[in-house]
Structure formats: structure tokens, C-alpha cells
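Tutorial, part two.
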Amino acid sequence: MIIDDAMKDRLNKLKQEFELDRPHSMLDHIHMSPKSRSLVEKDSFALLVAVIADQSVKSELAWNLPYELSTRIGINYLNPEWIIQNIETVQETIKKKPALHRFPKKIADYIFSLSSIIHEKYQSADQLLNCSLDYHTFVSAIKEVSGISDKKANFLFLILVLDFNHPFINKEQSGVLFDSHLDNWLSRYFNRKISKSEANRICKEVSPDNPALLCPYLWNLDRKFN
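Running the prediction step on this input gives:
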């Protein structure tokens, strides 16, 4: 990425504005019921399920899914061991009208993958979330779960940093959560198409201590624009 004087000025302006309004929470910007918020804050498995469900539907539907699922199957059954033994029930429960997700089978499969990995490699969902305080090791571990992409892994990383105060090391090497919102906003701001690699460079320039942190800031700006 070639940084000319005009682009440098825009980067400096963006950095100044970002420093005045750095994100302090990810969960505050997700629409969900108070009961759903309480559940994902105190139950690591519910948090992971919500992250997995947050695709192909509105975020409020996805983030309410763990709580709504728990009310249908019973809160004591929202755990990896029960899920593994009752995955068909989970799928049918998600599918039951009003459906908890647009793609019940896919989400049930992803929840089964999550449950299996926790059962086989970790003693609990808490241990998976705390498997490492190294950014790279954590992201690699989380991405072993089917349905968790690089973007989702970094989204979860930001939740743990901002909402749970996890003291990760190597935050300065975090990756961009590149999507249409980021693409649209950066392309408008710099008056040309911005690639994912360029977006990474921009994030590192503007938020060097945690490049991924610029992404939710820009998402919010793009929502306001639209």
C-alpha cells in the first residue's frame, strides 16, 4: 500500500478520532434481551454458542439463541456432554417454531463440533476460552471449532479483551475483521477500493496496540452512515 501525503493526512485524522472514541465493549453493541446478556456473561459455553450462531441471521436472533435454547431444553442441559448425546434433539429444538435460527441443522452441527472439542481436549468451555493468553495460540485453538472463521475468532478475542478483561499478549498482532462494512467505509474514506491486506495495514497504523480494535469502531461509523 502506497501512502501518499493525502492518505497520510486521512490516516492521522482517523487515528485522532479513534483515540477519542475507542470501543470499550463489544456486547454493549449487540441487541439481546437482559436474560440473554446475563447468560453469555456468566456461561462460557453460552457465549461460544452465541458466537457460532451469529451468521446468516440478525445478531439479536443469534445472541438470544443460547438463552432461548436453554429455556426449551432446560438450563441444566446447556452443556457439551448433554449436547453430544442429544444432538438430534438440539437440531429439532432450534428448528421448532418460532425457529431459533435460519439454518437449524448447520448451527446444530457447529454446536456439536464445539461440544466435541471441549469434551475431547478441554475439561470445560472456560478452559477453552482460557486455553492461552497468547493471541495467536488462542485464535488457532478457537478456529478448530467448525463454524468459527478467522473473523469470528477475532470477534471473540475482542469480546474477551473488552468485556472480560483478558490480558492477552501479542494483541498488537491481531488481525482485521474484514467484511462489507469495513470494505464500504474504508473505500469511501480513502476514495478508492481498499483490499483486505490494505485494511490490515490501515488498522495497524491507526490502532497499533490492537489493530482488530479499529474494526468495531468503523462498523459503528458505517452503520451511522447507512
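The chain has a mean pLDDT of 94. In part three we will examine how such features are distributed along the chain.
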